Amino acid sequence: MAVQTSFDFAASPAGAGQRAPGPLGDPEHETGRSRSVLERRLGELMARPISLTLTDNERTMISARRRGDVEHVRLHHMFVEADEPVVRALAAFLRDGDRLASQHLEHYVGQRRDRIRTRPRRKAALSGNGSHHDLAKVFDYLNARYFDDGVDAEIGWGRHGRAPGKRRRRRSIKLGSYRQSDATIRVHPVLDAAWVPEFFVEYVVYHEMLHHVIGIPVEDGKRRMHTAEFRRRERGYARYEEATSWERDNLERLLSS
Ligand SMILES: [Zn+2]
Question: What is the DSSP string of 34-47?
Fold first, then answer.
């Protein structure tokens, strides 16, 4: 069983112009607590083997997933300088989602928001932050959980393709797209709605991230987007069944949104 815990922190737009120092921070804040020291201490406190990866994520500061006996923990690199009380809070949060620990960590992260690198967006017009779903957050979560943070693509909402008032039912709808030339994922804006569950947006983004990862294989001289291998990996999304059945149940509504 995979236990998923995550702690997200949305960097404030005010910090957007600031560039954080290198991945391991600047020397004056570096207390020398190395990754392996932190890994060992967390393991002691949680009484289980830990595999620790430091990230330079923009949103997901803390995430963990159990595989077998080993807890695979991913922490923003700002945590290498965490003192004992913060490391204890991390352990308590990871162990049982302790609320007090969560507040402590939120405070810790808030004080170091200048360490969070805000990725330069290749296209300023591309906005991932909708009114109901935050695509950058969804992307970061999926990237950490399924792709070892290896997907380097842009993401944003597509445009509404029709004038307001012309709300005729569509014949079909493309919920997501991936363009290889500039590694850009777009998500149809009909999904930015309160009635669309986050797991469905995740499913659409996951699908497009797979296109980025797999590329477009050529079979028998034809470019094939959805190969058997693609479909197999698509089912690796944890809520695949739920997402595909939600899509079947709500297709009418999506077509007429
Ligand atoms: Zn596709």
Answer: -HHHHHHHHHHHHT
CA distance 63 to 7: 6
CA distance 209 to 211: 5
The reported pTM is 0.55
Identify residue 51 by its one-letter amino acid code: S
Alpha carbon of 121 to ligand 1 centroid (Å): 24
**Among 66-70, 122-126, 177-181, 189-193, the least confident range:** 122-126
CATH at residue 151: 3.30.2010.10
Both tokens of residue 199? Answer: 């797991």
Based on the structure, what is the number of domains in the chain?
Answer: 2
Q: Is residue 71 part of a domain?
A: yes
Residue 186 has pLDDT above 90, yes or no: yes
How much distance in Å is there from the Cα of 176 to the middle of ligand 1?
8
| Gap from CA of 215 to ligand 1 centroid (Å) | 11
